[in-house]
Amino acid sequence: MMKPGGSKHTVLIFKETLLPISETFIEAQTSHLSNFVPRYIGLGRAKPSLALPMNSILLTTGDSAPGRLRQTLYRSVGFAPYFHRWAASAGASLIHAHFASGGRSALPIVDHLELPLVVTLHGSDVTTKINFRRRYKKLWKKTSIFLCVSDFIRRKAVEAGFPTEKLRLHYIGIDRDLFRQSNKSKKGNVVLFVGRLVEKKGCAFLLRAMAHVMNKVPSAQTVIIGDGPLRPSLEKLGRQLGISCQFLGSQPGPTVRKWLSAARVFCVPSVTAPNGDSEGLGMVFAEAQAMGTPVVSSRHGGIPEIVLDGRTGLLAPEGDSEMLARHILRLLEDEQFWQKCSQKGSFWIQNRFDVKNQTRTLENIYADVCKVSLSSAELSEDQLLSKASVETKEYASLFTYYSHSWENGRVREDARIFGPPGANRVRSDRRGPERRFAGGAVATLYAR
Fold first, then answer.
1. Distance between CA 406 and CA 158 in Å, rounded?
2. Fold topology of 9-169
């Protein structure tokens, strides 16, 4: 994406705290921008944090009491002339803020620089029980587009009062160069959990499920990667249940990938927290499936959009440890079913949640918001698809199933998946398997 002088447009990537180690999905998306130059900006640095570029723009550095006070004051009054001048020096064309709270904190910069704003809604920002209108009324007006990480989040945003016409579904995706299926066979019966140790992640339900699992498969092991306020109580529960369980704490990316590759089953059985906080999507589910590790989880939040129940993994009702145990046992004991889920999971993620493809679509959104045009060499996958044909048996089958798996339990027409943006209804001869979409894309769908 070039300016008239030949240089690329800059996008300010705003996050209140840059960048917690659990937010690798933001780093992955940002690092795959190719037509826009990203520049991180935030109120402070997370502790611990992912590595940040040297040119990141921060209101405060360190974790001192004066720094925290300055952040609090900025959220209240939005006054920091030096911070705003530093942001202006980036010469950005737009701001992309993560989380609704981040968008709200970015509004003083938006006003000062007179830039368009894109906000990604991730989960807790639209699912927790708050007065959304009072908190986000100005944000609703100022934001050009709200990107929803799942259709579940889009529906929750509508319920919360966000302007429907500004909401757009956009999956972030994962880096397939980092997360890919290994040729090595998986050894042992490791059931892996990766996530923050908070109530929403449902780790206690996994531990109780593993007590049932070990009665039938004594060699089963549970590995917990992540940290949080519930760790002491979860470690105590593991001891009380007498299960083989390792708590490894927070781990760097390479270590997480090693365990994802080695595990037989991946399980994060998320549940709705008392304050309403829910799982927006959960990119770690995509990472596990990409590496050929089937998933057991809950029928909760956006998870059914990324885990195909019965095809790439198995889903249980929220908080149902006995059903979780039955699902885990099936994947530990039924080799044929495990192989099927492993292969389909890797294929599914490769074709629907690749961060390179998803980021090309994001750059088209940026271009629309900035009112600039892309060259034909920069067309997104969605735009190219409107000029081409898709006739891959497994690809079509999975996408058909996927489109059936969400939208209020009703069959959703497939053009939303295969067709160009805005083409959301099929027009076809339903007597045969071919479906032709508005815009010209064709897919051959196979019943299973």
1. 16
2. Rossmann fold (3.40.50)
